[in-house]
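Continuing the series of single-chain predictions for the mutant panel. This is the parent chain; the variants come on the following pages.
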Amino acid sequence: MWSWVLHRVTGATIFFFLFVHVLDTALVRVSPQAYNEILDTYKTPLIGLMELGLVACVLYHAFNGIRVILIDFWWKGPRYQRQMLWGVAGAWVLIMVPVFVVIGIHMSERFL
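Parent structure:
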């Protein structure tokens, strides 16, 4: 049940990001100066943490989506759903560690 809830939350988070991204990109046609000001606000530590959260959401959503597809379309899927959930968690952690390091390096270069 919690994997389903987390899948929905990450999907909504990704949708919200895409909505904001389309809006701020469309702003360049209205006012390039306002667009540049918005981009300057994106260079803050808070937004850096939000970028890290976005990557975490996209990775979990993608890995869990593959798990859901396997549960639905593989005849052994329901039997191995718990093991696949642990596989999703393990793959997520394995990829998030280097992502955290890389984004942390970029954030430290930007803010120090």
